[in-house]
Amino acid sequence: MSTDGNSHGQWPDGYARVVLDSVDSTMAEAARRVATIDRPTWIMAHEQTAGRGRRGRAWIAPHGNLNATLVFRPQATPAEAAKRSFMAANALYAALSIYVPSEKLSLKWPNDVLLSGGKVAGILLESSGQGRFVDWLAIGFGVNLAQVPDRVAGAGFPPISLKAAGGWDVEPLDFLATLADAYATQEDKLAHLGFARIRQDWLRHAARLGEVITARTGKQDITGIFDSIDVDGNLVLITGTGPCAISAADVFF
């Protein structure tokens, strides 16, 4: 296990790093360690044996891909904490753009990154707290750097890897340093410019903006023109009955 953050790329000030050979899940490890951290901490594992994605789906992570979680204590309400999924997506876009042409990348609401139309990265948020503010927030990042995992049942988009799409070869530790620096920039933007700037940046790279898409909520399918995301991060579709704001769904093109 390594805990230094200086040997691979420029590491952002104020963030710690823990690197593990193997773990069940970096999200689970973050929950176990959160009581002892004194600053935002990245936890990366070279191997995950029980990784997971949204809605309890498995996250398959072959060797050479990135499995990492950032855990910290933002002074944020649950709604404010949830908006950090867009900051995470912006950071992934910025980091991946260093290794592959940015025009191949796009952001899919609510928390995926697409590369040449396939899913190259996913984001998972978990938090805990009973009061006005969350006690802690964990943001999980899974990025297919070197290997294309098997497609998971129920997934809407085929997986793709950075390498398979013609991107540079990059080691997980090196990519983590790039990603950590990009995420720190997002926190600075939030502090100085507010969520309006985060939202603006995300929309600039949004997949299928202005086109007809379908949001599957679990109760119904809603089809409409992808108009925007609102100030709360909800997906806004223009349907036959007018604008519709959707807080949670899987999106299909």
Strand order of the largest sheet: 1-2-3-7-6-5-4
Q: Spans of 5+ residues with little confidence (pLDDT < 50)? A: none
Biggest sheet character: 7 strands, mixed
The percentage helix is: 10-25%
Shape: globular
Oligomeric state of the chains present here: single chain
Q: Beta-sheet strand percentage?
A: 25-35%
Alpha carbon gyration radius: 17 Å
Quickly list its features:
5 helices; alpha+beta; seven-stranded mixed beta sheet; globular; 23% helix; five-stranded antiparallel beta sheet; single chain; 253 residues
Present the secondary structure layout.
Elements: E1 16-23, H1 26-33, E2 41-48, E3 66-72, H2 78-82, H3 84-96, E4 105-108, E5 112-115, E6 118-128, E7 136-143, H4 172-193, H5 195-204, E8 212-216, E9 221-229, E10 235-239, E11 242-246, E12 250-252
Parallel strand pairs: 1-2
Antiparallel strand pairs: 2-3, 3-7, 4-5, 5-6, 6-7, 8-9, 8-12, 9-10, 10-11
Overview of the molecule:
23% of the residues lie in helices and 30% in strands. It is globular. The chain has a seven-stranded mixed β-sheet with strand order 1-2-3-7-6-5-4, sandwiched between helices. It has a five-stranded antiparallel β-sheet with strand order 11-10-9-8-12, with no helix packed on it. By secondary structure, it is α+β, with helices and mostly antiparallel strands. α3 crosses α4 and α4 packs across α5. A hairpin with a 7-residue loop joins β6 and β7. The mean pLDDT is 92. The termini are far apart. It is built from five helices and twelve strands.
